[in-house]
Design a protein that fits this description.
420 residues, mainly alpha, 16 helices
């Protein structure tokens, strides 16, 4: 009886100590429902408006092109900004995006919508990294990212299924209306998070806030950070090229399966479902094999399995291969994010620049992925697009794994930076 009482006492203490993380995870879950619905319906809606697969890829890639620009702006002008303000601006940008997307008929309007999409993604990524560095779960970044990914990916399971059903029902405003509803709920949870963190004094202003730096100095810091982290940054590009391919081609590919009737979103659901389990175990895996090795090896295997799609014609076998590939490959994202968060913690003075460089490369991946996938799909079809992109990503990751050093240290020396 005493052991049961002690168990609940420790569980209560753990929940109380990490209360901001749990509230943040719920907020991220609801916000991701908003994002996943729009991410699923966008490529389908663009093609329905009469655009070609290549044009669709260019439109999808535009959000990341704008995002790459915003990375530099955020790291320079938001050096001392915390997740509180970052998420406030994120919610404002999110509120505009679905309304533009709903009314978009021309390339110009789509580009404006994608600019807001790129902005809110950057604000979200900067905010998450800032939050994780202030509220680590048991002082392990990989475990914290894995925990948050469970909630985020749970939403990515539900969102595409809802969106696929709404698309088939042909209610044009319904997907946008549902997304706005989830965004509103996420904002209410964000307000609760602000009150909890303020009351517990979790977040403190920095003792030595960073001084404004010149544009030349900022670019020089980015150059030094990029050189130090080059293999990891290139791997990050491959990770996001691969993910962008799925979110660009996957919804279109899924709608080609009449066997799934109203549930075309099942394809994307299976792609995301494995993270519900891997998020809990990634900490164990990274402690045994290291974060970088875990990220590289699991991604190589997952991408190689996806490359078989062009030669499989049974949708049910495809779903089985997809489930296996996602179960293995999903370890790569939290492991890579955990390693990246370690670099930020080790180089706190240049943490915003490291975050900015990482997010910039993420946007490069999400810019390249939709465009290349759209071109390949135009000439080879959706199935062979997965084959081509899977081979490119797995071979590229294998080469990077062979040349990446075991220990990487971010080297930014003050004496090498311009003073004005």
């Amino acid at each position: 009886m005493r052991s049961i009482t002690q168990f609940f006492h420790h569980a209560k203490k753990h929940v109380f100590e990490h209360k901001p993380i749990y509230i943040f995870a719920i907020m991220l879950f609801v916000w991701t429902l908003f994002d996943s619905i729009l991410a699923y319906i966008t490529p389908v809606a663009v093609l329905d408006r009469g655009f070609s697969p290549i044009q669709m890829g260019l439109i999808m890639g535009c959000s990341s092109a704008f995002g790459a620009f915003f990375d530099f702006i955020l790291s320079k002008f938001f050096r001392n900004t915390t997740y509180r303000r970052l998420f406030l601006f994120m919610f404002l940008s999110c509120a505009i995006y679905p309304l533009l997307l709903w009314k978009a008929q021309t390339l110009a309007v789509y580009w404006i919508a994608m600019a807001f999409c790129g902005l809110y993604y950057d604000l979200k990524n900067f905010g998450i990294h800032d939050f994780v560095n202030k509220h680590p779960l048991n002082d392990e970044h990989a475990s914290t990212f894995g925990f948050l990914d469970v909630f985020r990916m749970l939403a990515y399971l539900i969102g595409p299924t809802i969106a696929g059903f709404l698309i088939v029902k042909d209610n044009t405003f319904a997907p946008y209306g549902y997304s706005i509803f989830f965004l509103s709920v996420a904002f209410v949870i964000y307000i609760i998070l602000l009150k909890v963190t303020r009351r517990k004094h979790v977040e403190r202003p920095p003792k030595n806030p960073c001084k404004p730096v010149t544009m030349v100095r900022e670019l020089k810091i980015w150059e030094k950070v990029s050189i130090s982290l080059l293999p990891i940054l290139l791997f990050q590009i491959l990770l996001n090229v691969f993910d962008a391919t799925f979110w660009t081609i996957g919804p279109v590919y899924a709608e080609q399966f009449p066997q799934f009737a109203d549930f075309g979103g099942l394809f994307m659901t299976i792609y995301m479902i494995s993270t519900l389990f891997t998020g809990f175990f990634v900490g164990i895996l990274t402690r045994h094999f290291g974060q970088k090795k875990t990220a590289f090896v699991t991604f190589i295997i997952g991408a190689a399995l996806i490359s078989t799609f062009g030669f499989i014609h049974s949708p049910f076998i495809i779903l089985g291969v997809l489930l296996l590939a996602s179960l293995i490959g999903s370890f790569a994202w939290p492991a890579a994010n955990g390693a990246y968060a370690d670099y930020i913690s080790e180089s706190h003075k240049f943490g915003k620049e490291i975050t900015g460089v990482g997010d910039f490369n993420m946007n490069i991946g999400y810019f390249i992925g939709p465009i290349v996938a759209g071109v390949v799909m135009q000439y080879l079809g959706a199935g062979m697009t997965f084959t081509v992109m899977g081979l490119i990503c797995s071979l590229g990751a294998l080469i990077l794994f062979a040349v990446t050093p075991t220990q990487i240290k971010v080297q930014v020396k003050e004496c090498e930076l311009p003073r004005k």
